């Protein structure tokens, strides 16, 4: 071994209280050359080899210590046994080869399944039925004039159902002193003529013709005033995203926001 390389190898094995004989040093040199270990990976590789060696039976203490002829264990440098080292190396090689074989056996086709979009039914939310109904007519690549509106409306209704199922937005029907103070989910059409009251709305963040930020639901839209908002909730709020906003409706037909947050999520089992 080169002096620098040998010194680094000895340093690692000494961390585990091991000493190296000439045959062991030569074998470690062969192992490093066989696997083309780079200098920057030398200490990591040798430390892994020494760690695996220390786990082997018969590598924990010399025979003289077991026989009670050595009193001070700290003064003992356990000599690395060549046969045990060879066994450790072969075990590490077999483990690496097994992992490589498993990677080769992975078949991408068993993890990917392509579904024809035309084989999937198209569903739209029905306010009358309170559920999704299957769209009539053949499916086409080109959308209709109302397809974009339907997509946004369907997404709004899906999120709304999740919100209404959430326990924080579904207060108890039993009478209580705090029931009147609870804020329930409202629609933009319920804001008219109720200035000074606080509302909780769910809708899509968008800009009106004047460039003002609004929240829009299936019944209309209202301009948002963020001047009294201290800090928004967690998440990223962008135009076109759906959000829950709470605020006070003003005489200027704006909603002074006091809180904004993401709609609550739910598990797949709950959604079903």
Describe the structure.
The chain is built from seven helices and ten strands. It is an alpha/beta fold and 272 residues long. The strands form three sheets. Strands 6-7-8-10-9 form a five-stranded mixed β-barrel. Strands 1-2 form a two-stranded parallel sheet. Strands 3-4 form a two-stranded antiparallel sheet. Helix 1 (3-15) runs parallel beside helix 3 (42-54).
Q: Secondary-structure element sequence?
A: HEHHHEHEEHEEEEEEH
Structural class: alpha/beta
User: How much strand content do the residues show?
Assistant: 15-25%
Largest sheet: 5 strands, mixed, barrel
Continuous helix count: 7
Shape descriptor? elongated
Helicity level, as a percent range? 25-40%
- C-alpha termini separation: 66 Å
For the secondary structure, the number of strands is 10
In terms of per-residue confidence, which ranges show pLDDT below 50 for 5 or more consecutive residues? 61-76
- State the strand order across the main sheet: 6-7-8-10-9
Average pLDDT across residues?
78
Rg over alpha carbons: 35 Å
Jot down its keywords:
7 helices, alpha/beta, two-stranded parallel ribbon, five-stranded mixed β-barrel
Secondary structure elements and pairings:
Blueprint (H helix, E strand, L loop, with lengths): L2 H13 L2 E2 L2 H13 L7 H13 L8 H4 L11 E2 L2 H24 L17 E4 L4 E4 L12 H19 L19 E2 L11 E10 L5 E5 L2 E6 L16 E8 L4 E8 L6 H4 L1
Parallel strand pairs: 1-2, 5-6, 8-10
Antiparallel strand pairs: 3-4, 6-7, 6-9, 7-8, 9-10
Helix pairs in contact: 1-3
